[in-house]
Amino acid sequence: MSDNPACSDDPNNLAKNPGESAASSAIRVAIIEDRDEIREGLRQLLDGSPSFQCVGAYGSMEVAFDGISTLLKHHERAVTVVLIDLGLPGMSGIDGILLLHDSFPSLPLMVLSVFEDDQRIFEAICAGASGYLLKNTQPERLLASLREVVDGGAPMSPEVARRVIEIFRTGGLPHRHKSNLTPHESRVLKLLVNGHNYRTAAADLGVSIHAISYHVRHIYTKLQVHSKSEAVVKALRDKLV
Q: Is 66 strand, coil or helix?
């Protein structure tokens, strides 16, 4: 089964009358999950639960980004929260979180994944995820977490919360250089070191040139440099990549 058109890319899924209390308070969820049976199960859960509505169900980040962008162009509240798998084909969930967060900074993004290792948890949070649940989460807890993240919370599965506490307790934030580059900034810097320009770096990471420019500005600030050549020299000298 491909991406479900019944609940995706349709601004008419919004309430016909925005003043209706039930419709105006609905939590409108976009799902990004490549496994058909899981995606369909999540869609049915949302559409069968009071105050929830599936407005998009996508099998890849590339398709999801276009669909979510289209929905938000029609109405700024067309999508209330995005539920994201990390193990996606093409652009990874983590890189997709970064792209979505850069493009729609006020849109809550919540991970729903089988992965509970430190590296993925750390990278997802650094990329912009507001919550992180494991796929063994019970439906009631999943719905409650979606409400929580929309209200400004940061829900996490107990296993994930323990890992986050342990990371900070031990000071072992993975792959944080003394320059304080995020994992994604480190990937961009490595591409620059390897001779990429903005266009080819964007193509390699599956993001826009604007996103690369955004990250390069942050890299320059953190490395205290003013050009690509200075950044490359400092990266090689200080072994940052």
A: helix
Place of tokens 């792959």: 175
The pTM (predicted TM-score) of the whole model is 0.69
* C-alpha–C-alpha distance, residues 229 and 132, integer Å: 37
Lookup: tokens for 76: 């700024």
| CB-count exposure of residue 177 (10 Å: 0-12, 13-18, 19+) | middle
CB 9 within 8 A of CB 70: yes
Token pair recorded at residue 154:
């940061």
Quick one: how far is CA 195 from the chain centroid?
Answer: 27
Cβ-based neighbour number of residue 212 at 10 Å: 23
Element (H, E) at 184: helix 183-193
pLDDT tens-place string over residues 7-26: 545 444 454 333 344 445 79
Nearest-angstrom CA–CA distance, 175 and 60: 27
Average pLDDT, the chain: 85
For the beta carbon of residue 102, count every other beta carbon within 10 angstroms: 17
d(CA 104, CA 101): 5
The pLDDT tens digits for 133-189 are 999 999 999 999 999 999 999 999 999 999 888 877 776 555 444 567 887 888 899
Question: What domains lie within the chain, and their CATH numbers?
Answer: 5-170 (3.40.50.2300), 183-237 (1.10.10.10)
Query: How confident is the model over 93-114, as a mean pLDDT?
Result: 91
Cβ-proximal residues to 103 (8 Å cutoff; 6+ apart), any chain:
65, 69, 211
